[in-house]
Design goal:
Its EC number is 3.2.1.86. The chain is of the alpha/beta class. It has 15 helices and 16 strands. It binds 6-O-phosphono-beta-D-glucopyranose.
């Protein structure tokens, strides 16, 4: 029966972002982005974002894994694994070094031309995130980043340059990486530092609104340029359970999730729900929303929903019980039923099935799992491939649950890309030792190493998963 198999065109692949792998931070006319001023942190110690590039500070993204110069070798390895797609982002400052120029930087466009051609040579579909935590620093300092309505036009200039140039090479796009992170970690998301005062929520939801409008207008623009394009939104899916079966805990959990669904509701349905409006009113949030914005939101609903999913959280209504464990951009309470990663993220494969069901029940729009993976310490023994059985275990359990969602529950999932398919710089800590890859990169947290690539045990494993279209896990 065909329902027992994944569709033949299922998009297996891997994902990275430009800033975490390209390096070449000042090559080819590139300007400085927020990612370029992020110093190295470590587990439990957030990265410091400096105002300028400072002498003597180590910035891991400056060279990253030098994908900019080594993309051919890396894509050949992805092709060897059988990737059907490869997700990356555009480093905005390669195309518009400051962000407010009128004309794009040809050298930047030419790089992505070469990159996409290389993918297509192997039949790998590029999947492109337009903005993945790499806002031009100039836009942050001169205009206040997304707190300013002008950003919509700067972003659309970028989109116009990209869609016009690449619409025949790139079919799958996403407008913003983890758009809901703007309210969770605005500094990482877009260089915004709202402080902890009363106006914090006002500032951040305003920034989110401008991104919603920008995203909607980008969807419309992309479809006008080429109706074949599939343009999605992308959110961090923070699956959360109520700590107990008390109605209070469940209500609190529901309200937590509401704040994330606000992002998908606007982008999928094209409007703010009554609940979102009540939330704003209750919290004294008054947004600059024009009639034209409301029309633009309606006219630019997305074609699919991209999600990142790494872990799940637990929520309690009791304030003292809050924040006991750190997670991906969010904190929660320890879940005694789950194991944790080396970085304390609570591993929950079944949660992926629940997440996919929740989203599909709500929207009936295709879902693309564009990030899932395990950040772990790999031990390198000279002359031997890394035995990353823990990564294989993590990935196979998650893929098995995704299959249940598709084959048993009927969720429409269009593809799955392993995050950091090649080791790269961690977004939250700037570490190299937090490795996600199926390809090892010889580089450490001090920026030392040959940058040589090596297949890990998971490389062969994933190759087999793709070859059998997910039958062999
Ligand atoms: C997601 C981001 O939140 O998580 C990625 O989209 C990031 O950019 C990934 O790398 C994993 O997080 P980290 O902090 O382990 O790199």
């Amino acid at each position: 029966m065909s329902e027992l198999k994944l569709p033949d065109d299922f998009l297996w692949g891997g994902a990275v972002s430009a800033n975490q792998c390209e390096g070449a931070w000042n090559v080819g006319g590139k300007g400085v982005s927020t990612a370029d001023v992020a110093a190295a942190g470590k587990h439990g110690e957030a990265r410091l974002y400096t105002e300028t590039i400072q002498e003597g500070v180590y910035y891991p993204n400056h060279d990253a894994i030098d994908f900019y110069h080594r993309y051919q070798e890396d894509i050949a390895l992805f092709a060897e694994m059988g990737f059907k797609c490869f997700r990356t982002s555009i480093h905005w400052t390669r195309i518009f070094p400051n962000g407010d120029e009128k004309e794009p930087n040809e050298e930047g466009l030419a790089f992505y031309d070469r990159l996409f051609d290389e993918c297509l040579k192997y039949g790998i579909e590029p999947v492109v995130t337009i903005s993945h935590y790499e806002t031009p620093l100039y836009l942050v300092q001169k205009y206040g980043s997304w707190t300013n309505r002008k950003m919509i036009d700067f972003y659309l200039n970028l989109c116009k340059a990209l869609f016009k140039r690449f619409h025949t090479k790139v079919k799958y796009w996403m407008t913003f990486n983890e758009i809901n992170v703007i309210t969770l970690n605005p500094e990482v998301a877009a260089g915004i530092r709202p402080g902890q005062g009363d106006s914090r929520s006002q500032t951040l939801y305003q920034a989110a609104h401008y991104q919603f409008v920008a995203s909607a207008k980008a969807v419309k623009l992309g479809h006008d340029i080429n109706p074949e394009l599939k343009i999605g939104m992308m959110m961090l899916y923070p699956l959360s359970y109520a700590e107990t079966c008390s109605p209070e805990d469940n209500l609190e959990n529901m309200h937590n999730m509401d704040l994330h669904y606000l992002f998908s509701d606007v982008q999928v349905r094209g409007y703010y729900t009554p609940k979102a409006k009540k939330y704003f009113a209750r919290n004294g949030i008054v947004l600059d929303i024009t009639e034209q914005d409301l029309q633009d939101l309606q006219a630019g609903t997305v074609d699919y929903i991209g999600i990142s999913y790494y872990m799940s959280l637990v929520t309690s209504a009791t304030p003292e019980r809050k924040i006991k464990v750190k997670g991906n951009m969010l904190d929660g309470i320890v879940n005694p039923y789950l194991e944790k990663s080396d970085w304390d993220w609570q591993i929950d494969a079944v949660g992926l099935r629940i997440a996919l069901n929740n989203l599909y029940d709500r929207y009936q729009l295709p879902i693309f799992v564009v990030e899932n993976g395990l950040g772990a310490i790999d031990v390198k023994v000279e002359g031997e491939p890394i035995q990353d059985d823990y990564r294989i275990a993590y990935l196979s359990k998650h893929i098995a649950q995704m299959k249940e969602a598709i084959l048993v529950d009927g969720v429409d999932v269009m593809g799955y890309t392993v995050w950091g398919c090649i080791d790269l710089v961690s977004a939250s800590t700037g570490e190299m030792k937090k490795r996600y890859g199926m390809i090892y990169v010889d580089r450490n947290d001090q920026g030392e190493g040959t940058l040589q690539r090596e297949r890990k045990k998971s490389f062969e494993w994933y190759k087999n998963v793709i070859r059998t279209n997910g039958e062999t896990l």
